[in-house]
Design a protein that fits this description.
Distance between the termini: 31 Å
Number of helices: 20
Helix content: 40-55%
CATH superfamily of the largest domain: Alpha-D-Glucose-1,6-Bisphosphate, subunit A, domain 3
CATH architecture of the largest domain: 3-Layer(aba) Sandwich
Largest sheet: 6 strands, mixed
Number of strands: 21
Radius of gyration: 24 Å
Strand order of the largest sheet: 1-5-4-2-3-6
Shape: globular
Number of domains: 3
Strand content: 15-25%
CATH class of the largest domain: Alpha Beta
CATH topology of the largest domain: Alpha-D-Glucose-1,6-Bisphosphate, Chain A, domain 3
């Protein structure tokens, strides 16, 4: 651990702008706790990139830490990539996102690496798409996804369009770690060395993205018959508004209802406490709009438009929000059913889910004789399977419980736009069967059994919080429970032991009981949280979920 007071003092005396120095000085004078948190360590550039609170300090997202990360990435590219290299860059609607994107572009260009920079905010999945479209070496997305307004982040993608994975991720992390001083960053051109071009991308990429998405449609006839389906859409102040309504219109829907207050791109997210479609409060205005207009479906996307939340009408006509597990279950069923009906299944296709996503997905895949891969949490692992299987077998779809889903091979990340259009299309197809989406989900449960899942997290902020989360994991490893939900423990999976799991090392524990229930414990890699994923199957599953919550959350 570094001497935070000494580190802060170095920012006061170093080559930093006056606004940054004023912020450091104010922390010194008024908030010693915040000062320590801002300087006690360097903001970690992990395998997923950067994410942190914005502000002055070595442990904060600011133009200096973003510049250092970009210099490390540039050094890796120059050392490992032969020939001309290029990087695509996009950003969401968060405060400072455009600034951080432009700084990243500037540093790369000053290192002789060509940049393709979007002219304004674009979704994370479109950044993924643009990398392969432009045949770029890498990509940068400036976003903190669904985090609160105080946060921003920086995701790195590789030439396959997926987020970086081993061994590239660790090698880039090592290069970034070598940049210990902003003075090492090429914020300005170096005399005598060529500066690469920064090319602006815009509508032409949008058109390609929308065109390829249209090819994923499975039920155009059903959409044509139900084109007036009332769909409320909200981007939650994020960049989804750029293309999602247009995508829905292009596949045939004519009745898209907006939430005007939330169409405004605003990094302060003024109408929500947190721009996370997983949180019921974030959907409140859209649900109200649905009731006012008699809408059939609500779609909501997070700030960088990779996560999708939905709400549908239950049998009593009330709007209810579905979990990611529920949405991906009926959507996977629909997609596989249509592939089967269209004669597209021949045993050479596959789906992917993460280890914390409902096992109902695996059961559905098995019934259609489609292989289902199980991977670590994080969509980059789904993308990695796509890369490994390219040319061998065909990816149909993949999802994770945290509201991430994708189908088709154009995007190598979760895509709320693709998923949202597929959900709307599925609603039209279900209507042809005389069903609502809610009733389709109940039909899936009747066929495969009732699966119930619940994720609960505990927030522990700052240095002391990080230590407490580490201790919780250590305690569970040293002394696992003897039973869960009243049933004896039969198996423990420790993902810190890849020799036992067959997957990359990860700080995750899973506990299985004799009744088939499962509890997964996992610290978040991007937020000050420890997450508990509870899963139960059977008619008594809801009651067992409550038992598990009572046992593990205290």
């Amino acid at each position: 651990m570094k001497d935070y007071k000494q580190a802060a003092q170095s920012w006061l005396s170093g080559n930093f702008d006056e606004q940054t120095k004023a912020e450091v000085k104010q922390l010194m004078e008024t908030d010693p706790v915040a000062l320590e948190d801002a300087f006690y360590r360097n903001l970690e550039f992990g395998t997923g990139g950067l994410r942190g609170i914005m502000g002055a300090g070595t442990n904060r997202m600011n133009k200096y830490t973003v510049g250092m990360a970009t210099q490390g990435l540039a050094n890796y590219i120059k050392a490992h990539v032969e020939g001309a290299a290029s990087v695509c860059i996009s950003h969401d609607s968060r405060n400072n996102s455009r600034l951080f994107a432009e700084i990243s572009a500037q540093v790369l260009a000053n290192n002789g690496i060509k940049v393709y920079l979007f002219d304004s905010l674009r979704p994370t999945p479109e950044l993924s798409y643009s990398i392969r479209l432009k045949k770029a070496t890498a990509g940068i997305m400036v976003t903190a996804s669904h985090n609160p307004k105080e946060y921003n982040g920086y995701k790195v993608f590789w030439s396959d369009g997926g987020q970086i994975t081993a061994p590239v991720d660790k090698d880039i992390v090592a290069e970034v770690a070598k940049i210990e001083d902003p003075a090492d960053v090429r914020f300005e051109p170096v005399a005598g060395e060529p500066r690469a071009a920064v090319e602006i991308m815009g509508a032409e990429v949008d058109e390609c993205y929308l065109r390829d998405q249209l090819s994923l449609m499975l039920s155009p006839e059903a959409v044509a018959k139900h084109k007036d389906l009332k769909i409320v859409y909200t981007p939650l102040h994020g960049c989804g508004v750029k293309l999602m309504p247009e995508a829905l219109k292009r596949i045939g829907f004519t009745n898209i209802i907006h939430v005007p207050e939330q169409d405004v791109n605003d990094g302060n997210f003024p109408t929500v406490a947190s721009p996370n479609p997983e949180e019921p409060a974030a959907m409140a205005m859209a649900l109200k709009k649905a009731d006012e207009t008699g809408a059939d479906l609500v779609l909501a996307t997070d700030p960088d438009a990779d996560r999708l939340g939905i709400a549908v009408r239950d049998n009593d006509g009330k709007m209810v929000q579905l979990s990611g597990n529920q949405t991906w279950s009926f959507l996977t069923y629909y997609i596989l059913k249509r592939w089967q009906e269209l004669g597209k299944l021949d045993g050479k296709q596959y789906c992917v889910k993460t280890i914390v996503t409902t096992e109902l997905i695996a059961a559905i895949c098995k019934s259609f004789n489609v292989k289902c891969y199980n991977v670590l949490t994080g969509f980059k692992y789904i993308a990695e399977i796509q890369k490994l299987q390219e040319g061998k077998s065909e990816f149909i779809c993949g999802g994770e419980e945290s509201y991430g889903f994708n189908l088709g091979s154009f995007v190598r990340d979760k895509c709320a736009q693709v998923a949202g259009c597929a959900v709307a299309e599925c609603a039209a197809w279900a209507a042809e069967q005389g069903l609502t989406l809610y009733q389709l989900l109940q039909k899936v449960y009747k066929e495969y059994g009732l699966y119930v899942e619940k994720m609960v997290y505990i927030i522990r902020k700052g240095k002391s919080g990080a230590e407490e989360i580490q201790q919780i994991m250590a305690d569970y490893r040293a002394c696992p429970p003897k039973e869960i939900a009243g049933s004896p423990l039969v198996k423990v999976l420790d993902y810190n032991k890849p020799e036992e799991t067959g997957l990359p090392k990860s700080n995750v524990l899973q506990f299985f009981n004799a009744a088939g229930d499962v509890v997964t414990v996992r610290p978040s890699g991007t937020e000050p949280k420890i997450k508990f994923y509870f899963g139960a199957k059977g008619d008594d599953a809801p009651a067992k979920i409550e038992q598990l919550k009572a046992q593990f959350i205290n």
